[in-house]
Design goal:
alpha+beta, 12-stranded antiparallel sheet
Length: 276
């Protein structure tokens, strides 16, 4: 789904994805700058400077003698301050690299397929949601290659195809089914302004699962709009009936219908971290 580095993904089609790509371009330049700073930095000799002073120094103005050890102590303090300042500046080239590591830590680790009211902050039905532990986009199969997928029943990535229950993403790639979404807390985002905690509660006696977003966030707020996904079901439902001209899907728009299929649109949430 919307993989920025996937060879299967078409060119960026939204301002959100373009902004994300720009951030990563800046981060890559920062990482290269950090590397270059350490490669070309001058080597400072690790020689300890010592000031040799006579034990007694005669002051030319007052005629008084001053202990040489006091002058040495004063000079040592100045050198200590310069040393601390130098050590601080030595770490400045690391800052771009730290920024790169921060951005890398904010990459989605997993992906949630959510179905519900975009304006809701909580609700039921999480038992119908799904979780991809890997980006299903690069592992998908193009509609043009469906015949081979149908014959073998298995995608090149190793997942099995269910002809009566399958998924499509916004570029027309047939995806593997997501796993059921386990109860727990998930840090989710739509790669826009809002990042918050999604709580998935255990199933009740009727097998229903509640979900709730923290801080008053709505499901729409944590939906990654360029990513679209839908589940297609039916005994006569086949990807062969899907029109390639319907793809790619406009960010935020509904997934196209496929003849003889029951379609369920799902929002896609990026998972940054989770706690069961």
């Amino acid at each position: 789904i919307c993989s920025l580095i996937s060879p299967l993904s078409p060119p960026l089609a939204s301002s959100n994805m373009a902004r994300t790509a720009a951030r990563w371009a800046v981060a890559l330049v920062a990482l290269l700058a950090t590397t270059a700073a350490f490669v070309v930095r001058p080597v400072r000799p690790s020689v300890e400077r010592r000031r040799v002073l006579p034990r007694k120094i005669l002051s030319s103005s007052s005629g008084r003698t001053v202990s040489g050890s006091k002058l040495t102590l004063h000079a040592g303090k100045n050198m200590g301050r310069r040393s601390l300042l130098q050590q601080a500046t030595d770490f400045l080239p690391l800052l771009p690299g730290v920024w790169f590591v921060y951005l890398f830590s904010r990459l989605p680790k997993q992906y949630i397929a959510a179905k519900g009211d975009p304006n809701a902050t909580s609700g039921t039905g999480a038992e119908t949601w799904g979780l991809w532990t890997k980006d299903p986009g690069p592992r998908g199969v193009r509609l043009s290659n469906f015949q081979r997928l149908e014959e073998t029943g298995q995608a090149p990535a190793g997942w099995s195809f269910d002809k009566a229950d399958w998924w499509l993403e916004e570029h027309g790639l047939i995806m593997e089914k997501p796993d059921p979404l386990p109860p727990g807390k998930y840090e989710v985002t739509g790669d826009r302004e809002v990042t918050t905690t999604l709580t998935i509660f255990p199933k009740d006696n009727d097998g229903k699962q509640r979900w709730e977003l923290a801080n008053g966030a709505k499901l729409f707020d944590v939906t990654h709009l360029p990513c679209r996904s839908a589940r297609y079901q039916g005994s006569s439902c086949s990807p062969a009936s899907a029109a390639a001209s319907d793809f790619p899907v406009t960010p935020g728009a509904a997934m196209p219908k496929v003849p003889n299929c029951q379609k369920q649109d799902h929002a896609v949430l990026f998972v940054l971290s989770s706690q069961s």
